[in-house]
């Protein structure tokens, strides 16, 4: 994919990044020696780390991201060479393809098998029917949600979310700081060849084009990645149930596991829209 001039190789001889106007903690470069695609800190990020890394975007074209979870990066199976460019795809076409597949074809096993239905209900109680899962929509792609007005500066929103995620007691309190040579936040997963959605999509650049569209329509920024989770800040969250449901339809296409993989809190798209999208300053996605 098209990338900006990569300044990461300079950190091999200048680990603190002083020549780039930075003051980095100890860290590691990942990728070929002449063209690494990731710098990651050796220790956990603190609440102030994100703001400390932000100048790297201006001085070196390096964007911050938090890397969470217990996985060693070797276990993440990063493969940037396999990814295309988000610019090569169209967000609506990608989401429409996903929606039509998952809304029309990925009917839960318990909806087809009466024995499975009984077993699931014994464990979790009565489950929603498939039509109820995607209501108020049907198998036809409902289209992109309208853009919403920004409530705050997107980069400031990202810093606030990063600060909250790295506070003691947060689920990402041990996340490591990282820098990626990317033109925009939405490109970070593709630049590093992140494989979190591999069971859903082999080319994460296709999801990247959706992230680019969310950047434009909702002021989204990629804030954190784990082995199989993506966290984004949202500077223009939906304010009404109708707006939230329209966005939730895109989330269902983007990451159906958010709704269909046993989340008892949000078992339907409507519930998901109300609890996870409406007025939400952060969106989290995971793939089984």
Number of helices: 12
pLDDT averaged residue by residue: 89
Percent of residues in β-strands = 5-15%
C-alpha end-to-end distance:
26 Å
| Helix-strand makeup class | alpha+beta
Rg value:
20 Å
Please tally the β strands and state the result: 7
User: What are the segments in which pLDDT stays under 50 over at least 5 consecutive residues?
Assistant: 106-114, 119-127
Tell me about the biggest sheet?
7 strands, mixed
Strand order of the largest sheet: 1-2-4-3-5-6-7
Describe the overall structure.
This protein has 288 residues and is α+β, with helices and mostly antiparallel strands. Helices cover 36% and strands 13% of the residues. It has helices at 49-53, 55-60, 91-104, 109-112, 114-124, 130-134, 154-165, 188-192, 204-218, 241-254, 257-260, 269-277, and strands spanning 27-30, 38-41, 62-67, 176-181, 220-225, 229-234, 282-286. It has a seven-stranded mixed β-sheet with strand order 1-2-4-3-5-6-7. Helix 3 (91-104) crosses helix 9 (204-218) and helix 3 packs across helix 10 (241-254). The chain is globular, with a radius of gyration of 20 Å. It starts with 26 loop residues before the first strand and ends with a strand. The model is unreliable at 106-114 and 119-127 (pLDDT under 50).
